[in-house]
Amino acid sequence: MLYLSTVNTRSIRYVIVALCFFAGTSVAFSAAAQALNPTSNPVDFLAIDQLIEKEMAARNIPGLALAIVRRGELVYAKGYGVANLEHQIPTTPETVFAIASVSKPIVALAIARLVERGKLSWNDPISKYLPGTPELWRDITIAHLTNHTSGIVRESPKFDENAEIANFDLIEATFGVALDFPTGTKMQYCNICYFALAETITRVTGEPWPNFIKRELFDVAGMRDTRTTSVRDLVPRRAASYSWKDGQYSNEREYVALRPSGAFLSTVADLARFENALYNGKIVSAKTMTALTTPTRLADGQIGRLENEPFGYGLGWNVGTFDGQLRVGHGGSLAGFRTMYARYPQSGWAVILLANSTTTRSFSLERLVAKLLPMD
Fold it and tell me: Minimal CA–CA distance to 108: which of 334, 355, 360, 341?
C-alpha cells in the first residue's frame, strides 16, 4: 500500500494528482498504489521527505521536485518549497524546470531510434552527415560524439550564451580548433558534440531535430509538458532559477541560446512518463538500452571515465554501481537548475530530482534517496 499518512494535505493532493495523470495509460490511484512489489520492504516516504527538507534547508534550495518510479509505475511524486520566490508559487510534480544535461540521454535515444531503423550507424563517421568536416575529424564517429571520446573541445569558440546562433554555425566554428587528444584515447565532456548529434538528426530525417524528438520520444511517452528551452516563450508553471550568496537569494540568468546538450524543459511527472516508456520498451529495445548503458572502453582497453569520476559512461548515460546495484543515469547543471535522473535496472527503481538552485547537490542527494529504497 502506498505510504501517504505522514505528508500534509497539500502534499497528499500533489501525490494523488501525480499518481493519476499518466497520459496514455489507465493508471488509477489504486493501480499506482500497487506499483511496489508486495513482497518488498515498505518505503519510508516520511524519511525521504525529512531527508529532502533537511538538505533544502542546509543548502538554501528554494524549490525541488521528486519522482520515484518502480518497474515503470509512478510510486511517489512530490514538490517541495517554492518554484518562484517572488510570487511564492509552490513547487509541484508539474513544475517545469530546465533539465540541463539530462537532455543528453534523450538526444542519444533519438539517435538510437534512427540506428534501430537502419538510418545510420554508431560507427558512421560524422563527416558522412556534416559537410566540410576537417581532416582531424576523419576518424570521429557518431559513437565518439555520444560517449565523449572524440577529442573535440567542450564548447564551440563561437558559442554565446546570450545569442541564438544556428547549430551548424557553432559546429563549423569548431572545425579549425585542434583536438584535445587523439580520438578514442580519452574521455572528456563535450557539449558541442551533442550539437553535432542534433544536427545529424536534422540532416538524416529532413526535419528540425526538436520536431523529431517530440514526435518520436515525447509524444510516444505521453509527455505533455516537455519542450525545447526558450526564455521568451510563455511556459505554464515554469520554475525560476536562483543562486544563494552572502546570505540571500538572487535570480540566476538563464541562457538565451538553445543548446542541444541541455535542450529541454520538463517536469518530474513527465520524466516519470518517460521512464515508463523506457521500461516498457516503447522508446528503444532492451538490446539497444544495453548497448547505450555499457561503459565505453578506450583505445587501451580501459573503461573511460569523465574527469576522474568513479563511474563510466556509455552512449549518453553515466554507468556505474551503487550499493551493489547497477546505476545508469545523468545529471545536469544550467543556470540555477540542478537535475538528476537515475535508473537502477536490476531492481527497477528510478529516481528523478529537479531543483532550482545552484547550491543543490543533485547527484549526492539522489544517492541518499536511493539508499532509502529497498533494492531487492
Answer: 341
What local confidence, expressed as pLDDT, does residue 297 receive?
97
Does residue 310 carry a pLDDT above 80?
yes
C-alpha cell at 136: 582531424
C-alpha 271/C-alpha 265 separation (Å) is 10
Continuous segment of H or E residues that includes residue 274? helix 268-279
Of residues 19, 101, 7, 51, the one with CA closest to residue 272: 19
Alpha helices in 117-175 (DSSP H): 142-146, 167-172
Cα separation, 360 vs 243, whole angstroms? 10
Nearest to 193 by CA among 373, 68, 315: 315
The residue among 199 and 162 whose pLDDT is bigger is 199
The grid coordinates listed for 55 are 538538505
35 DSSP 8-state letter: -
DSSP readout, 284-322? Answer: S-HHHHHHHTSPPB-TTSPBP-STT-SSEE-SSSEEEEE
**Looking at the predicted structure, is the pLDDT value of residue 8 above 60?**
no
Alpha-carbon distance of 309 to 304, in angstroms, equals 10
23-34 in b/e form (b: 16+ CB < 10 A) is: eebebeeeebbe
Q: How far apart are the first and last CA of the chain?
A: 17
Q: Within its chain, how far is the Cα of 350 from the centroid?
A: 12
Q: How many residues does the chain have?
A: 376
Is 60 exceeded by the pLDDT of residue 318?
Answer: yes
Q: What whole-number distance in Å separates Cα of residue 80 and Cα of residue 224?
A: 22
What's the angle, vertex CA 200, arms to CA 218 and CA 133, rounded to 5?
160
State the pLDDT at residue 41. Answer: 66
What are the pLDDT digits (tens) for 117-170? 999 999 999 999 999 999 999 999 999 999 999 999 999 999 888 888 899 999
Contact by Cβ (8 Å): 137, 174: no
